[in-house]
Amino acid sequence: MVDEVEHQVIKNFVNGRRIRNAATLLLLAGAATASTLSAQTVPDDQASPAANLNLPQNPTIFGKQDPNVRKATAIVNNAVLTGTDVDQRIALVVALNNIKLSPEDRDQLRLQIVRQLIDETLQIQEAKNNDITVTTTEIDQGFARVSRNFKRTPDEMRAYLRQVGSSEKSMKRQIEGELAWSRLLRSRVEPFINVGDEEVKAILDRLEAAKGTDEYHLKEIYLSATPDREAEVVDASRKIIEQIRKGAPFEYFASNFSEASTRAVQGDLGWIRLATLPAPLAQAAQGMEVGQIAGPIETPGGFSILYLTDKRQVLMADPRDARLSLRQLTKNFPAGTSQAQAAKLAAQFAEATSKIRGCGEVGKVASDLGVEVVDNDSVRVRDLPPALQELMVKLQVGEATQPFGSPTEGVRVLVLCGRDDSRTASLPSAEAVQQQVEQERVNLRAQRMLRDLRRDAIVEYR
């Protein structure tokens, strides 16, 4: 177990990176509160999941069972989940992710939400069984914090939730589940987690040995497929990819459709080296650019969709960590501008801005063209859209980018006024590594606790 945890820490912790609070992220994304789970590509157990079941290779199914026939209500250890609970949570997920669902996708999401609500109920019940309660005041404070995150007052948030078909009650139930589960872990798990100095030193040594190797920050959606369903799953994967490329959030599909345990953290595999991935995924990731989606990729048991959010070298300075001083010139187009008209205006704008010789000329050029100028003296390259990152890394001080934009948003040019390059990264502190290992072990214990609760629960579908 020590090796497994250390391996996960080295994947997730470079330059002081810490595990995110998965439950908080999922609260905002509308998914279930859960601990950080291991990726589909890094199984919890090396043995086959069915090793002890003695299953026939070609079973005959007697009778007919269709899980979709079940109504979206359940009784979990005598706690009732109503259809209204499910409908309001679906509305919350859809609204917070700003996505439109087909009837098929909505049916799939409904099944997923039922499972999430069952887990949430089990977590709240277990906390109460251990004399852990969350007060109404604490839940109200949590609701106010979430409202502020969405730049709304609590009253405005209540009105918004009613407008989208959800409710204050649905969100507060999620908040209660998050607080109850986190307190249970602090009470029953965290006091018994110990990390020795030698373990910390071993992790630091391995980080040092990995210096200069490539790491990839990947997100994954995994869909299982039996031989008879391969065509169906491939088609579903392609539809997901199409929607993501049209602007739908990758995290929404990862949280609600992925069958990997990483759905609890929106499909996030964290920072990993390709050697830890199955060969098909490693080969696909190696050829990807930041911001690119690849798939469907055939893997053992199903198909994966990968999204490369970032790339770096362990403990090495990254040019995309440089901070830039920029001046932006913006030319807005009149309403109703066609693509052809926009292209002509952009060409004229490009010709005028290409003659800029340093930031000192920006004001004059902007005045001649009648365009807006905005300054920003501290922009990290990696915080820019992927396409602009490539431009800015190669740009020299005083040079301007090519125009970019759209007929509706107008056209822009960035002029580089200065660059503060990043320094070589240093090893994280021993204290930070120790905290990371402790958190990883808490997450692993939490995963097992939830599995045990599911196994022992009495769940009746109505």
TrEMBL record:
Annotated keywords: Chaperone, Isomerase, Periplasm, Rotamase, Signal
Protein origin, superkingdom: Bacteria
Pfam families in the record: Rotamase, SurA_N
Residue ranges of domain PpiC in the record: 213-310
Family annotation (InterPro entries): OMP_Chaperone_SurA, PPIase_dom_sf, PPIase_PpiC, SurA_N, Trigger_fact/SurA_dom_sf
Molecular function terms from GO: peptidyl-prolyl cis-trans isomerase activity
UniProt KW Protein transport keyword: no
Signal peptide segment: 1-34
Name of protein: Parvulin-like PPIase
UniProt source species: Sphingomonas desiccabilis
Lineage: Bacteria, Pseudomonadati, Pseudomonadota, Alphaproteobacteria, Sphingomonadales
